[in-house]
């Protein structure tokens, strides 16, 4: 999620920036995706609402103060995390997680005139309630950069059924595709291709934690690289530092698996 644009690119694209923010505040991915072509045609998200569903929105006020997000009175927030509130928590920290805030910043870059609705949860039950709430509010688009690794991986889990229900009610649900890099799923399946047994869990392996790689929207290089075991595995050997890729995000934030 590198966000600093070269000065030359900023100059060449100055007429295509979607709002008055400086070029350094626009995610580089927007230009790589060709969003500027849509901006030039006036597609800025005006009149639309987008739910950003995540584990937490730590650092939200700091992001607003930096001009990365609109003021609170232009956004709506809803927390289903009974234990931690809107700041939430992830599996990797005991502090409020800024992951949802970073996701909201990217969406705001792409659709600066859309109304953002920030929704967080912690447990699967809270996720189900959050998903139902998004549908109840008639929010047409939901972005969820997170996943569940507990199975059953066949679409019958509570989270999968909740998303299906929201989709049936008209919500366009956008889910992340994966952040586990060289890790992959491995397991058995029956004749209907349904995963079965304990081996249906994601293949055990090291998860690389790049502290500092995600902070400041990718402007820092990884300052340290630690590992934790994959689910059900023994502690893995440390990964070489060069295996820790900036911005790759090692947690279960974005694996694309909705059981």
Overview of the structural elements:
The chain has helices at residues 7-12, 28-32, 35-39, 60-65, 99-110, 124-136, 158-168, and strands at 49-54, 76-79, 115-120, 141-144, 172-175, 188-189, 195-196, 207-211, 224-228. The chain is α/β, with parallel strands linked by helices. The protein has a domain at 44-193 and 250-254: Peptidase S8/S53 domain (Rossmann fold), CATH 3.40.50. Helix 6 (124-136) runs parallel beside helix 7.
Assign an overall shape. globular
**Please, what is the oligomeric state?**
single chain
Number of strand elements: 9
From the helix content, strand content and strand pairing, which structural class follows? alpha/beta
Number of helices: 7
Task: Give start-end ranges of low-pLDDT stretches.
Answer: 1-15, 20-24, 198-257
Tell me the series of helices and strands, N- to C-terminal. HHHEHEHEHEHEEEEE
User: For the CA atoms, what is the radius of gyration?
Assistant: 19 Å
Tell me the span between the first and last alpha carbons: 26 Å
What is the CATH homology-level superfamily of the domain at 44-193 and 250-254? Peptidase S8/S53 domain
Largest sheet: 5 strands, parallel
**Which architecture of the domain at 44-193 and 250-254 would the CATH scheme give at its second level?**
3-Layer(aba) Sandwich
* Order of adjacent strands in the largest pleated sheet: 2-3-1-4-5
Q: Considering DSSP H and I runs of 4 or more, what fraction of the residues is helical? A: 10-25%
């Amino acid at each position: 999620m590198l966000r600093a644009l070269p000065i030359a690119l900023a100059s060449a694209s100055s007429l295509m920036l979607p709002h008055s923010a400086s070029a350094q505040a626009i995610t580089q991915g927007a230009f790589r995706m060709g969003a500027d072509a849509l901006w030039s045609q006036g597609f800025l998200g005006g009149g639309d609402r987008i739910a950003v569903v995540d584990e937490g929105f730590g650092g939200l006020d700091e992001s607003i103060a930096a001009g990365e997000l609109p003021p609170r009175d232009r956004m709506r927030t809803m927390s289903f995390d009974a234990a931690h509130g809107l700041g939430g928590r992830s599996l990797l920290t005991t502090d409020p997680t800024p992951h949802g805030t970073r996701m909201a910043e990217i969406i705001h870059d792409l659709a600066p005139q859309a109304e953002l609705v920030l929704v967080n949860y912690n447990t699967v039950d809270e996720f189900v309630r959050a998903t139902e709430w998004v549908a109840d509010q008639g929010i047409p688009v939901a972005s969820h950069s997170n996943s569940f690794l507990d199975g059953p991986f066949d679409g019958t889990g509570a989270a999968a059924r909740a998303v299906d229900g929201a989709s049936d009610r008209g919500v366009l649900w956008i889910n992340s595709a994966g952040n586990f890099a060289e890790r992959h799923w491995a397991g058995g399946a029956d004749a209907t291709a349904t995963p079965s047994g304990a081996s249906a869990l994601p293949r055990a392996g090291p998860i690389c934690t790049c502290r500092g790689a995600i902070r400041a929207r990718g402007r820092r290089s990884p300052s340290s690289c630690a590992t934790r075991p994959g689910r059900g595995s023994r502690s893995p050997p440390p990964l070489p530092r060069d295996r820790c890729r900036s911005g790759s995000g090692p947690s279960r934030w974005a694996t694309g698996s909705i059981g």
